[in-house]
Amino acid sequence: MTRTPTTLPHDPYAQAVMAALEAEGLLDAAESWTAYDCDNGEVMMMEVVITLDEDRARAAGWTHGLVLSWNHAEGGWEWGPQGSGGSRDYVLDLIKGTLTPGPDDIVRAVQLLLDDAPVADRLPIAGTARPPAQTITPVLQAVLDKDGVDEELARALSAYA
Q: pTM, whole model, 2 decimals?
């Protein structure tokens, strides 16, 4: 996975998650991305979209692959099987209990998705957040100043900087 300089408010968090998935051979880095934009004309949203390794997903019975997504305005991490047309067939919660679960929690949840047992009764799993940062990064402070995030999320994301 090629690392680029951090430019988006949530990039350090996204990079930590992607690195943990990559270390386990679970990530398709070329099809994973982050964004910070306005999709409704009003609210700036931080997004992470992660495509899991296609061979691993197919071996687990997910014919067209699996996609994870995180959106700070939508409540955290979700997953869904990719449909034949490229969009997800449906979306379900992956992690509960925190908006910014640790990368290890995400790896654990993905491993459950790729296990051959039914996932419906095993997901979402409970997540644990890193202790919040004492200091908010300048880029997140700028987002906080514009009411783009609350202080709790700014500190949680700053813990990964």
A: 0.91
